[in-house]
Amino acid sequence: MHKKLFIPGPVEVSEDVLQKMATPMIGHRTKEASQLQKSISEKMQKVMYTNSQILLSTTSGSGLMEGAVRSCTLKRAAIFSIGAFGDRWYQMAISNGIEADLFSTEQGKATTPEMIDKALSTGKYDLITITHNETSSGVMNPVEELSEVWKKYPEVVVCMDTVSSMGGTKIEVDKLGVDICITSTQKCLGLPPGMAICSFSEKAIEKAKKVKYRGTYLDLLALYEYIQKKDYQYPSTPAISLMFALDYQLDKILAEGLENRFARHIEMAKYTREWAKSRFALFPEERYASNTLTTIRNTRNINISELNKQLGQRGYMISNGYGNLKEITFRIAHMGDTTLDDIKELLSAIDELIK
Ligand SMILES: *Cc1c(COP(=O)(O)O)cnc(C)c1O
């Protein structure tokens, strides 16, 4: 039996979107391929609220995270981490020989404007990374507030991980002054895994031009230049099947209406949080609780893998905690095309099992 996914990626994918991946293949050096990539890029600009060029990468989100820090750090990167995915970005910098410092916040809490100001005022950094939605702790950073600070430092390239939030909550990339905003297909966009997408600003382009060793496959400037030179093509062979599905799903997302889509996510988040608070407790500080997934403190000490086994027999799957939060939390994703009715159905099934 298929288990409906309530895990923070991959998410449940609609049948019609899956079917699009069975579209007959086209050559990646054809006009049709250019058309397909261009169409995806224009629609992604709407979802991201940006006029920057959109880049596609045949990797998961991690690929563009690594590519961004490597391609655009000239001096030194300041990595702001609120959990496992922020820490991973620091590892990526270090393992690529990029000079970087890690600024960590206690799990469950958000990055503060003061932290960013203090780091950037040293003048040591020309790139920062921010996690918009930390999928381990379930914290959504207050990026509007934070952006007021990084906007004071116009020489700094701002990279933001929106892997588990873009398409599920409003993120106005240009207004926030984000230069490289990264997401991937298998979370709020509601597609199978396999591609990453980012915006790439003029500032990021100019910075990358000065960086000598940007690598090859994950060189963001190479992706950008190929689009310019070859009219929306990709340097190597992209995941064309996924691109067919992405183009189609973006039509569906825009037809739903972005505001409607964001409102649906907020409604699901509120319902899940109320449920969590009355049975367990929220892990994150409530004012920063994510709109796309809820991380719940396992105050009743229930056996999550046993619960998941029983949920599996009923056709559902939730997620245990991530990393060092594995034993003390569990996670319910409410992202992508999931509806409030799906969430109600899941939560009442859990209620029956934990009675
Ligand atoms: C899932 C996730 C990633 C990793 O993305 P992949 O597409 O699996 O490489 C990075 N950051 C966040 C916040 C995530 O949720």
Brief write-up:
The protein is an alpha/beta fold and 355 residues long. The chain has helices spanning 15-20, 31-48, 61-72, 84-95, 113-120, 143-150, 173-176, 202-210, 220-229, 240-256, 258-279, 304-313, 340-354; strands spanning 4-5, 53-57, 77-81, 100-104, 127-131, 133-134, 139-140, 157-161, 180-184, 196-200, 281-282, 293-297, 316-317, 319-320, 329-333. The protein folds into 2 domains: 4-9 and 257-354, Aspartate Aminotransferase, domain 1 (Alpha-Beta Complex); 16-254, Type I PLP-dependent aspartate aminotransferase-like (Major domain) (Aspartate Aminotransferase, domain 2).
3D structure, described in words:
By secondary structure, this protein is an alpha/beta fold. Helices cover 43% and strands 16% of the residues. Strands 2-10-9-8-5-3-4 form a 7-stranded mixed β-sheet, sandwiched between helices. It has a 4-stranded antiparallel β-sheet with strand order 11-12-15-14, with helices on one face. It has a two-stranded parallel sheet with strand order 1-13. Helix 2 (31-48) runs parallel beside helix 10 and helix 5 packs parallel to helix 6. The longest helix has 22 residues, at 258-279. The mean pLDDT is 98. The structure holds pyridoxal-5'-phosphate (PLP). The site of pyridoxal-5'-phosphate has 13 residues, from helix 3. Pyridoxal-5'-phosphate (PLP) binds next to helix 3.
